[in-house]
C-alpha cells in the first residue's frame, strides 16, 4: 500500500524554501522527476523538516495547474519541462507526415505490424492473469487456431480488438464504441456472459493488492458511470482549450481505469482506448509499439502511478510521467527490434537465389537453420500476411526447384518440409 503523505498548511517555513535558490533547485528536481512523498522524504536538504519540504514541493506543483472535472472526480495536472520535452520527441517520431521509410521500410510494414499486435495482445492479457506463454500464444495466433482455454481466449480477444480499433480509428468515442470494445475484449472470458459490453450495475467491486490482499482502490459509485462516460467522450471528441493529444490519451486511460465501469476487463479496455486514441490523432507508429509489454515489465510502477495520483489529491502528474516513460521505452525497444531485423535481413543475402521472392528466401533460411521445420499454408499465411493462395504458390515454387517436398498430413492438409537433398540443391542453384 501507499504511505499517506503528511498534510500541513503552507507555513512561512514552506514559503522560505520556495524562495531560497538552493532549496528551490531541489524542489524543481522533485517536480521534474514527479516523485511522491515516499521518495521525496529521503531527498530533503540538510537542515529542513521533511514535512515542510514535501509541502513546498506540493505547493509548487499547484501553481499553474490545469483542472479536469468529471462527475466521478476532479483532477489537476502541471506539465513539467520534462513532460514537454518528451511530448516534443514523440511528435517528431510517432506521427505527422514523417515518412514510414525513415523508421520502417514499406515492404516490411505488414510483417512488423502483425508481430507488434501479437506482442501487445499477449502482454496486455498477461497483465490481467493470462498464463499462456508468448511462444504458445503466437503459435495460436499465427495458425488461427481455436483457443484452448480462458487465457488463450483473452489473448485472441485482445488481438482481434486491436485490429478492430485500427479499422475504427477515425470514429468518435461514444458510450456505444466503449461498450463494443469491452464486449470484444471480454468475449467468452467472464463468469456471466451478460456482463460483456455492459456497465456494472452495483458497487460490489474492488481493486485488491495482489500481494497483501488489501483493497487498493474503491471505484466511484455505479450511479455516476453513465454521466462520467458521456463527459469522457465529450472530452475525447472536442478540442476546446488545447491539451496535447498524448496527454489526453493518458488521461482517458486513467479515467477508465479509475472509474472501473465494468465488472472485469477494465485495464484491457483502458489500454485499448489509449491505443485507439493515439492512432486517431495521427500517431501511426503506435501500431508498432508493444506498450503493454513495457508496462508488464514494470507492473508495480504502473499500479503505483495510479495510487500516487489517487492518494495525492488526484494529481495526474504521476500517471502522466510514468506513461511518457513507457512510450519512450517502447520506442527504444522498437528501434532495437528493427536493428536486429535489419541484421537478419542482411543475413538473408547468402540465400539470395534468382527467381525467389522475399518470402521464399525467408522460408529457405528457416529450412537451413531448422532442418526439422514443417510448414502448412495456414501457418505462413498469418506470418507473412498474404492469402493462402499466394503462400501455397510460394511453397510449390520451392518444391519445383527441389528445395522442399510435400508431406501428406491428412486427407485435406498438406505439409511442406525441406527436401532430402536440400543442401546439395541449394548449392547447385546458387552456383548457377
Q: Gist?
A:
This protein has 432 residues and is mainly alpha-helical. The protein is built from 19 helices and 7 strands.
Which geometry do the CA atoms define? elongated
Q: What's the order of the H and E elements?
A: HHHHEEHHHHHEEHHHHHHHEHHEEH
Uncertain runs are: 97-101
Structural class: mainly alpha
Tally of alpha and pi helices:
19
Mean pLDDT: 88
Could you name the key traits of this structure?
three-stranded antiparallel beta sheet, mainly alpha, 432 residues
Q: What report would you give on this structure?
A:
With 432 residues, the chain is mainly alpha-helical. Helices cover 57% and strands 6% of the residues. It starts with 11 loop residues before the first helix and ends with a helix. The relative contact order is 0.10.
Sequence-ordered SSE layout with sheet pairings:
Elements (H helix, E strand, L loop, with lengths): L11 H8 L1 H13 L3 H4 L9 H13 L3 E4 L4 E4 L3 H14 L14 H19 L6 H10 L6 H18 L7 H12 L20 E2 L6 E3 L7 H13 L7 H15 L6 H15 L10 H7 L1 H13 L5 H31 L10 H12 L4 E2 L1 H8 L3 H13 L3 E5 L5 E5 L3 H10 L1
Antiparallel strand pairs: 1-2, 3-4, 5-7, 6-7
Helix pairs in contact: 1-4, 2-4, 5-15, 6-7, 6-8, 6-13, 7-17, 8-9, 8-12, 9-12, 10-11, 11-12, 13-15, 14-15, 17-18
Amino acid at each position: 500500500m501507499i504511505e499517506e503523505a503528511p498534510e500541513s498548511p503552507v507555513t512561512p517555513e514552506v514559503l522560505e524554501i520556495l524562495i531560497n535558490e538552493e532549496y528551490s533547485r531541489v524542489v524543481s528536481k522533485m517536480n521534474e522527476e514527479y516523485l511522491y512523498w515516499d521518495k521525496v522524504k529521503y531527498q530533503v536538504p540538510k537542515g529542513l523538516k521533511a514535512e515542510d519540504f514535501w509541502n513546498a514541493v506540493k505547493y509548487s506543483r499547484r501553481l499553474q495547474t490545469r483542472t479536469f472535472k468529471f462527475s466521478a472526480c476532479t483532477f489537476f495536472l502541471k506539465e513539467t519541462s520534462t513532460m514537454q520535452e518528451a511530448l516534443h520527441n514523440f511528435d517528431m517520431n510517432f506521427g505527422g507526415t514523417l515518412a514510414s521509410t525513415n523508421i520502417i521500410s514499406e515492404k516490411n510494414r505488414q510483417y512488423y505490424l502483425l508481430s507488434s499486435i501479437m506482442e501487445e495482445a499477449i502482454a496486455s492479457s498477461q497483465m490481467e492473469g493470462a498464463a499462456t506463454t508468448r511462444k504458445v500464444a503466437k503459435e495460436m495466433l499465427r495458425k488461427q487456431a481455436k483457443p484452448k482455454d480462458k487465457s488463450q481466449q483473452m489473448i485472441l480477444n485482445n488481438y482481434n480488438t486491436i485490429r478492430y480499433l485500427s479499422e475504427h480509428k477515425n470514429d468518435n468515442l461514444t458510450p456505444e464504441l466503449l461498450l463494443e470494445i469491452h464486449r470484444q475484449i471480454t468475449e467468452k472470458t467472464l463468469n456471466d456472459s451478460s456482463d460483456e459490453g455492459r456497465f456494472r450495475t452495483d458497487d460490489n467491486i474492488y481493486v485488491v493488492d495482489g500481494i497483501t490482499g488489501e483493497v487498493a482502490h474503491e471505484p466511484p459509485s455505479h450511479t455516476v458511470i453513465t454521466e462520467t462516460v458521456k463527459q469522457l467522450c465529450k472530452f475525447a471528441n472536442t478540442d476546446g482549450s488545447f491539451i496535447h493529444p498524448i496527454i489526453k490519451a493518458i488521461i482517458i486511460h486513467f479515467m477508465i481505469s479509475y472509474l472501473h465501469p465494468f465488472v472485469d476487463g477494465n485495464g484491457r479496455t483502458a489500454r485499448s482506448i489509449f491505443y485507439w486514441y493515439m492512432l486517431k490523432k495521427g500517431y501511426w507508429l503506435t501500431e508498432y509499439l508493444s506498450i503493454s509489454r513495457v508496462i508488464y515489465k514494470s507492473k508495480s510502477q504502473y499500479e503505483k502511478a495510479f495510487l500516487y495520483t489517487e492518494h495525492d489529491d488526484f494529481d495526474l502528474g504521476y500517471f502522466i510521467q510514468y506513461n511518457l516513460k513507457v512510450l519512450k521505452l517502447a520506442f527504444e525497444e522498437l528501434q532495437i527490434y528493427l536493428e536486429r531485423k535489419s541484421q537478419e535481413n542482411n543475413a538473408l543475402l547468402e540465400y539470395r537465389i534468382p527467381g525467389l521472392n522475399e518470402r521464399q528466401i525467408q522460408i529457405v533460411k528457416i529450412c537451413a537453420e531448422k532442418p526439422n521445420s514443417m510448414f502448412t499454408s495456414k501457418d505462413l499465411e498469418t506470418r507473412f500476411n498474404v492469402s493462402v493462395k499466394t503462400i501455397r504458390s510460394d511453397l510449390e515454387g520451392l518444391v519445383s526447384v527441389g528445395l522442399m517436398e510435400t508431406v501428406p498430413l491428412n486427407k485435406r492438409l498438406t505439409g511442406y518440409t525441406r527436401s532430402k537433398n536440400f543442401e546439395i540443391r541449394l548449392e547447385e542453384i546458387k552456383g548457377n
